[in-house]
Amino acid sequence: MPRTQALQTSRLLMRAVRPLNRTPSRIISRSAVSNSHPATAPARLRCNTFSTCSARFGAPTPDTTTPSKASPTEPTNTVAELDIDEYHRIADIWLDNALAKFEDLQDQGEEIDVEFSSGVMTIGVVGKGTYVLNKQPPNKQIWLSSPISGPKRYDWVVSGDGQTGSWVYARDNSTLDQLILAELEVDLEASDEL
């Protein structure tokens, strides 16, 4: 292709593309954009070459009186990165509190039979079945086997800035305390010392 024909083709293409880059209400000359320094140019003139960008709206500028409000953030729940000693400490506190609560109910004559041996708690409830709770140190979890809801694995999850935590089932975000309250009508949350 001869050079003159290539020049004509490129000019035609530029003319065809130019209306796409401009809106009727705001036409900016190429010289205004190229002669203005990016730091001092008004926002409406700051565009990248070969771009159809418009002015940045919503960004704070010195002449705005009200900055945009940040949306409120909800507290985050994350699985805690526990070392093995911390895991054992937290799991043992929870299991000891649960054992004390179930033994109190057993002593009061409730139809509950509780046993705790080698890190495994077995809770027999008349009319419901047998629940089994045990620690799983390799996974840093507490496992529950329920005759009503089946097997579940609970991770230690901290809320917000890490001040409080609970054993949470990852699939539905329910806590171990909530499940025991719902199925056995025993409130363990009041006895948590974590």
The tally of strands reads 8
Strand content: 15-25%
- Gross morphology: elongated
Distance between the termini: 80 Å
CATH class of the largest domain: Alpha Beta
Can you describe what's shown?
The chain contains four helices and eight strands; from the N terminus they run ααβαβββββββα. The chain has helices at residues 3-21, 30-35, 84-107, 176-184, and strands spanning 77-79, 112-117, 120-125, 129-136, 141-146, 150-159, 164-169, 174-175. The protein starts with a helix and ends in a 10-residue tail after the last helix. Strands 1, 2, 3, 4, 5, 6, 7 and 8 form an eight-stranded antiparallel β-sheet that branches. It has two domains: 1-63, no CATH class; 77-191, Metal Transport, Frataxin, Chain A (2-Layer Sandwich). The chain is an alpha+beta fold. β4 and β5 form a beta hairpin.
Per-chain topology:
Blueprint (H helix, E strand, L loop, with lengths): L2 H19 L8 H6 L41 E3 L4 H24 L4 E6 L2 E6 L3 E8 L4 E6 L3 E10 L4 E6 L4 E2 H9 L10
Antiparallel strand pairs: 1-6, 2-3, 3-4, 4-5, 5-6, 6-7, 7-8
Features:
2 domains; ferroxidase activity; Metal Transport, Frataxin, Chain A; 194 residues; alpha+beta; 8 strands; 4 helices; eight-stranded antiparallel β-sheet; oxidoreductase
Give a brief rundown of this model.
Helices cover 30% and strands 24% of the residues. It is elongated and about 100 Å long.
